[in-house]
Write a structure and sequence with these properties.
By secondary structure, the chain is mainly alpha-helical. It is 69% helix and 0% strand. The radius of gyration is 20 Å and the shape is elongated.
């Protein structure tokens, strides 16, 4: 498991300290995991899987894909949850609030504009 933890950390571009902060442990604990001096607890394993969208079976055994493959709807739901959590000060929130007021004609105009941009 030590190499797989390192693989996740490297794939996410994080230092040991940054990785540890995201899952609630210290950087030297991550060092110990990666060097095989300690094994992560079940709670830490679950934190890694949740925080980094890692396949638990892969983390524990090396079988399967490293990351959980999400559907488009799951990705959109997570994005919207993040936007709502960020609140009114976030520009994404303000943008979504503004477009929620558009009528059918406005949406048709936006679609035509988007199609023109894609053709360029």
């Amino acid at each position: 498991m030590k190499e797989r933890i390192k693989q996740i950390r490297k794939a996410k571009g994080l230092t040991q300290v940054e990785f540890g902060e995201k899952i609630g442990v210290k950087g030297n604990t991550i060092t110990n995991y990666e060097n095989g001096l300690r094994n992560p607890t079940d709670a830490v394993i679950l934190s890694i899987c949740r925080e980094f969208e890692v396949n638990k079976e892969w983390l524990e055994t090396g079988k399967g894909e490293m990351f959980i493959q999400k559907t488009e709807n799951e990705k959109i739901a997570e994005f919207l949850a993040d936007v709502l959590k960020a609140g009114e000060k976030d520009q994404r929130y303000r943008f979504i609030a503004a477009i929620s007021e558009l009528d059918e004609n406005d949406w048709n105009t936006i679609q035509k504009l988007a199609e023109k941009l894609v053709k360029k």
